[in-house]
Every structure is written in C-alpha cells, then in structure tokens.
DNA sequence: CTTGACATGGCAAACGTTTGCCGTTACAAT
DNA sequence: ATTGTAACGGCAAACGTTTGCCATGTCAAG
C-alpha cells in the first residue's frame, strides 16, 4: 500500500535510479530542477523509503543495538536517553536489548541483532563480564559503557570515581571536618577501589591521617550503611562526617545518626554518591556526587558514530566526571528544611547540567 | 561474510527453496532426513537468517515499536520490561522510541517505524493526547497503555484506580480510622477522578460521611502533599489518617505531620499510591497501593500479539488492579523501624508478585 | 493398466532499494 | 574539426530471503 520509489519515479517522469539519487543526495550529479521536482513530489505523495529494502541493499541500517543488563535500574534509562538523544541528531536509530544477565537470552538477542544487521553496538554493563558475547559481534563496532568498572580499553566510557570521591571529601574538609569516615562499596568492584582511592587522595591533600578505624566496607544497600555508621558513632572519638560510596548507604548512615540522637548535619555531616532520586527527597536531603549517566550515554554514542563514519579502528577511552551537589545533609547549618528544596528530581534541564565531560 | 542460505543449501546438496522450507517449518512438506541434515548443517556452519531480507520478502518483521513519552520515569522502564518479556517468548523484538512529548520527533520516529515496517505498536502515554499520531499508523495494529487515563476503548490497557483507592481506604477503615482525609491529584487527569471516586466509594461502604473539609487537591508533587496535610492537621478536629493519591504527596504529608509534632502512624496514619522506591526507603516506610506497571506491559504485549496473530479486529480493553502493600506509615504500632524492612525495591520476584490481572 | 493423490524438491519471480556501468549531450580547450 | 571532460540520466544487477508453480517419483485405489 505505501508508495514505492517506482511509483514516485514514474510520477516524476524519471527512472528509479534518478529518483533514488535525488532523494539520497548521492554523489552522482542530478539536475537541480528535477531534483526539486522529485523532492516535492515525494513530499506530496507521502513517499517514505522502505528502510528494510535499503538495508538489504546497502548493508547499513542506521541502527545501533543497545545491550543493557537491566533496564529496571535507576541509572540505565538515563544512559539510554543520552545515547538516543545523540543518535537522533545523526538520524540513527536504536534497538534496546535487555538481557537481565541471562546468558541464554543474551546470545539469542545478539543473534537477532546480527540478523538485523545493525551497524554497531553499545554495551551497557554494570558488572564485569567475560568477552564471550563480544566475540560474536566482534566484526561490528562495539562500545562499552561501564558504570562500576573502569576500563583502560579503548572504545569505552567510564566514570572518574576517584575524582568524584575527592570532590566529596574536599567538600567535607572545606567545611572544617577533620575526622571523616568512609563507608565503601564491596570488594571486587572497580568503583569501590577507585572511590576509596579518591577518599585517600583527598585526605592526603588535606594532610589528614588515614585511619583504618574510619573505613568500613558496605554492600551498596541501606542496611550496610546503617550498620557501618552505627559502628563509627560508637567509637570513643566519633567522626564528625561520613562519606558513603552511594546514596543508599548514606541514607542508612543518616538513619543511624538520628537513632543515636545526633542531628544531621549539625552533629554529623553525611555525603553520598550517585545522586539518586532519594537524595533529593529524604530528610535531610543528601549532599552527593552525581553519576553522569546522561553524559555517559551521549559520549558512548559519539564514540560509536566516530567508529562507524570515520572508519577509525578505535576511539580513545572516555572518562567522565560527576559534580558535587550540595544539599542539607552536609551543609545547611539551620536544622529546618526549606520546602523548596524538594524539587522534581530529573527535569530535562537537569539531564545536561551538572555533568562535565573529560577526554 | 556471514553464511547465506545459498551457501548452506549448496553444502547440503539441496536448493535454497528446500533449505528455506526446512528452516522455517513451512507447510510445504520436506523429507525428514534431509530436514535434519539441513538443520544440523545450519548449526555447524553458524547460519543465521538475514532478517532484513526475510522482512523484505515477507513484509513481516517480528518487530513491534514501543512508543513512550518518557523513558526517564519511574514507571516506564517497568512497563517496557513487561512488554519485552512477553514478546520475547514469542520471538518478537521491540524498538523503543522515546518522544519526550515532542511532536516533531514523534512524527519522525513514526515515519521511521513505518519505514522499518514494524508489525505493530504499543503506545505508552502518561497523558491524554490527540489521535493525530495514531492516524499515521492506523494501518498497523495499535495498543495503548495508559497509566493515568482510563480508556473504555478497545485495544488498551489501563489501571483500576477506583479499586486501588478503595483498597487504601478499606485498609485505614479496618484499622479503626473514622476521619480519613484525602489528598487528590490535579484536575484533568482521569486518575485523579477515579481515585477520588474510589475514596468516596470506600467511605460509603463503611458508612463514613464524606466531607469536603477532608479533601484537598494536590499536584502530585511533595510540596502539595505537605501543604495539604498541614491544612488538615490545623483543623479543630484533625483527621487520624491521610490517604494521598501518590507516594510523593504521601511523603509530604508525613513530613508535615512530623513537623506538627505528630507521630506517624501512631497519631496520623498515611497511605500513598504507586509503590515507588521511596515508599520502601523513607522513614517510616509508606503503606501504598501498587501501580502494576509490569503486568500492564505484559498485558499490552499480549493484546498486540493477539491482534497480530489471530487476525481479530480488536481486543477488549484490559483493566489491571494493583494491590495494597502494608508498611509502617499505616500500621506498625511500635515506633521503631525494624531494619529488615529496607529491602531492595525491585527484585525480579517482586516484578510479578503483588500484581493481579483482571479482564 | 490407468488414474489420482501425495510427497518431495527445484526454478524463478518477487520484495524495494542502491549503484556500477554505459550512453548521450553540451561545452570548453586544442 | 577534433578531442576531452563533465553533467545528467537510464539499464539492470544485486542484496538474501520466501513462495507460487511446476516436475518428478511413488504408491494405492480402481
């Protein structure tokens, strides 16, 4: 039922070849007048190119696959949006595959992607993984987005966790805190190591002594933040500030402080990491370092398009930095929370602001 | 580079026609022995059908488009997952289009979908909209998912908000509350009207008098819940329970109660709606009615596949019911919060549990 | 022995594009 | 007048499938 190139060409009194060239802006010259005639005719007739047929012929589909390990995650959708917004400008399309870390489904999905002859892939993984899946698609350009693992590899986007942790500790030190405790992530995650390193770096920068008594390892969950903070607050010389490696653990630390009869931030200052929605809704709201998901998505799309169009073999590894968002849990000296602080978490503006790109 | 049907056929010593029929399970008979030979050969040679070519020939792509107005929303990803999980079982694929309610981008996206000759569309919209976009794709099977608008239309999935609100008020009445206030959503949304109706229905059921003094209209945001609750609590005969039409306003109500020196739930019980993550993280955790996004996604996919495969003209409208999740803000008599309550919000199990389907 | 039905398999057209190759014309340079 | 170059346009092949149609062989019923 849809109008084809043949019909369009016949209506314009030209061959399909000419019509095709007029529409695609081919390098082959075509008379400007006829070109315009074809274009306007295409408009009026409502011609829409059959992308399936085009894909079959050109073996390029202007489609990239996005493989994510969980679309139900506070971070993934933002990354996806970053990717899609960037792709859109270049008239690329994306197909999202949600694997849920199920290898069987993943390999089936990859087969599907191959069958659809997508042009490239962005792989959004929160965990490290073997390279098995990658091999299958090795012939296609491939870009990684790693939220919790840093990769020195080329063709990858990751986060400068060290820098982010420095930001947090800097802030606390600047407020005058000298005993700053740290609740880290579990072992085996690069993010845990890097944020710990950032914590240490910042301490050194401020000539503060690193003490193992002020560091505990959590598991990203609220309870672990709660337990760790309770431990710190029972010490003879309790810390005046706690930096947690994510917002959930920071919230746990706040609850523990409150249970101990301490006021946040007057008695204990707390800083989190990630800038999840909860950080803007809790009481007090949580000072935190943003995880620049949107920018990461954009950067990965940019990398992939470079790979596709400039025929470069590989792109550099991109590392993105978050920024500090100061809220009540660290700063505001008055105890009472101005109501205006409870703003919507993610407005379009917010997506882009607060995130800076490096590399 | 990938192995084609021709190569496979030649290797098996048959024609492409036979190979095709062996692989696709065509109705045309093919000798069982040769069929097996072809299948195993396909396996060893790593043959993957070119879905582009197949799509060109058959004009069916086993792909459905998912058009969402915002992928950055606490609800959309869960709906998407419901859709994709269901589609996956039937070897369908999906393409997600994020419109951000930008009509220009939306129409471009729809053109793209047409060009890709997708088989059908699931439209996930949180707001009501004109049918303009729909017309363009009218030739394709189309299913709506409406989270905040109910549609009597066929080919649509929506929520039984009336029922959900009843659930909440029932719960409060059962706990002995007789003055139950209501913070509603803004006008113009079906969800607001339906939840209000449910509130009234439940009151009637319990022989409780409806009073306009106990109802205020919020705007879904935390502040409005805060302001509304403060208003209620200043009344000479303050309510002992507050039902808010979403979790954010419920949280605002909790904050207002706490500011007024009242304990939740001992002095004021609060129930929300939606079961967003915050409801499981706040202090106290919030009793709420689930918005069964995952089930809605599944149901819409089922509807669409019915449309595609059974050649039915239309499917019935499906209405899905949420369930009540009792947490501390309404029930727990003791003031202190057991730490175990702070569990991960969305585990795979959770996706399916707590949601019941009707119709 | 004839006929019809069925199992099996191949030929080739078709799906709607893009593009290499060739032909024609116009025009400038020699 | 001849040649070279560029602009313009058409023909037809190709991309990898699926499928209508036809051909052959087999076998059972008449």
Describe this structure in words.
Two copies of one chain form a homodimer. By secondary structure, chain A is α/β, with parallel strands linked by helices. A seven-stranded mixed β-sheet of chain A has the order 2-1-3-4-5-11-13, sandwiched between helices. Chain A has a six-stranded mixed β-sheet with strand order 7-6-8-9-10-12, with helices on both faces. The longest helix of chain A is centred in the C-terminal third of the chain and has 17 residues. The C terminus of chain A is likely disordered. Chains A and B meet through helix 4, helix 5, strand 2, helix 6 and helix 10 of A and helix 4, helix 5, strand 2, helix 6 and helix 10 of B. The first copy, chain A, binds a DNA duplex (30 and 30 nucleotides) through helix 2 and helix 4.
């Amino acid at each position: 039922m849809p109008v084809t190139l043949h019909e369009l060409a016949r209506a314009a009194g030209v061959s399909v070849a000419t019509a095709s060239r007029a529409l695609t802006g081919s390098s082959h010259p075509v008379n400007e007048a006829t070109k315009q005639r074809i274009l306007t005719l295409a408009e009026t007739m409502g011609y829409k190119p059959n992308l399936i047929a085009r894909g079959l012929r050109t073996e390029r589909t202007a489609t990239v696959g996005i493989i994510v390990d969980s679309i139900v995650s506070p971070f993934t959708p933002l990354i996806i949006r970053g990717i899609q917004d960037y792709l859109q400008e270049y008239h690329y399309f994306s197909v999202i595959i949600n694997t849920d870390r199920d290898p069987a489904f993943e390999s089936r999905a990859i087969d599907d992607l191959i069958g659809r002859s997508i042009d490239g892939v962005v792989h959004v993984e929160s965990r490290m993984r073997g390279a098995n899946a990658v091999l299958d698609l090795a012939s296609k350009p491939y870009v990684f987005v790693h939220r919790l693992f840093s990769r020195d590899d080329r063709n990858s986007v990751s986060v400068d966790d060290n820098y982010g942790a420095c930001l947090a500790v800097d802030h606390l030190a600047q407020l005058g805190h000298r005993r700053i405790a740290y609740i880290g992530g579990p072992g085996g995650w690069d993010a845990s190591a890097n944020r710990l390193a950032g914590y240490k770096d910042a301490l050194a920068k401020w000539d503060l002594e690193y003490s193992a008594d002020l560091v505990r390892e959590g598991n990203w969950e609220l309870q672990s933040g709660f337990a760790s903070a309770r431990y710190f607050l029972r010490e003879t010389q309790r810390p005046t500030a706690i930096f947690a490696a994510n917002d959930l653990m920071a919230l746990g630390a706040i609850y523990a402080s409150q249970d101990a009869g301490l006021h946040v931030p007057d008695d204990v200052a707390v800083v989190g990491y990630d800038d999840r929605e909860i950080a803007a809704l809790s009481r007090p709201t949580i000072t935190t370092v943003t995880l620049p998901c949107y920018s990461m998505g954009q950067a990965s799309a940019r990398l992939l398009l470079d790979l596709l169009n400039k025929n470069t073999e590989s792109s550099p590894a991109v590392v993105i930095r978050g920024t500090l968002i100061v809220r009540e849990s660290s700063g505001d000296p008055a105890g009472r929370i101005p109501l205006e602080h409870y703003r919507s978490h993610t407005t379009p503006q917010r997506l882009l602001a607060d995130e800076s790109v490096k590399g």
